[in-house]
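Reopening: structure tokens for the magnesium ion complex, inputs below.
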Amino acid sequence: MIQLIKVNKHFGPLHVLVDIDLTVKAGEKLVVIGPSGSGKSTLIRCINLLERPTSGTVIVDGVDVTAPRAPLTKVRQSIGMVFQQFNLYPHKTVLENVTLAPILVKGVPREEAEATGLQFLERVGLKHKAHAYPSQLSGGQQQRVAIARALNMRPKIMLFDEPTSALDPEMVQEVLDVMISLSQDGITMVVVTHEMGFAREVADRVIFMDGGQILEEGPPEHFFESPTHERTKLFLSRIL
Ligand code: ADP
Ligand code: MG
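Re-run output (same inputs, fresh job):
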């Protein structure tokens, strides 16, 4: 579903991704961990070309998105993204937030977008807030709306970049629960997170990044029971 081949990213003198090779299979749940500044966000932003790699190839669902004239708009529609900041439109209701992109970008008829939107709001436990405004919701609720909004584009891939990092502690679990439920659907998920309980429960594979490289990868048990690299051990000892 996703393949990165020798991907490099430079920001001026900074070499932020170094020869990244990574394959994510359809339906796979990949968790990305690593210290701040190690390139995790840049890595996942290269998947939907929010960042363009300086060199290397990114293939998404069979399409080389790094090729000149790649059908980026179409590929991006198949990739949902959830950020640390929820970025809901403050002057639109929850349901409007969830239906806007399918209607405007994909040309889905309003009635249909609203019907599926309500289903996804129900899925994240917020159907009863369909006509509320974002400011009337808690952070955890806003993030669940952001997930429903991404889902209403019917993506094949969901990218999550530290989706719970901006939340008050008591709201983290409600968002993780939605993500856990989503993981049972067969959708391909790439999740940057420091929530190791989530990684343990959901991940098929965990990668540890440091200095723009994938230093270590394996099933979650490997990470928690027998990490190989000193830097992985040190990182885990700090966050666990
Ligand atoms: P992480 O998500 O692991 O914290 P990032 O991918 O956000 O790491 O950042 C990796 C490095 O790239 C950091 O040193 C960061 O300051 C730098 N960086 C990220 N985005 C930009 C940008 N748009 N311009 C310049 N430097 C950037
Ligand atoms: Mg980041």
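The pocket of magnesium ion (ligand 2) is lined by residues 40-41, 161-162 (CB under 6 Å). Residues 46 and 52 are 6 Å apart (CA to CA). Marking as resolved unless the reporter disagrees.
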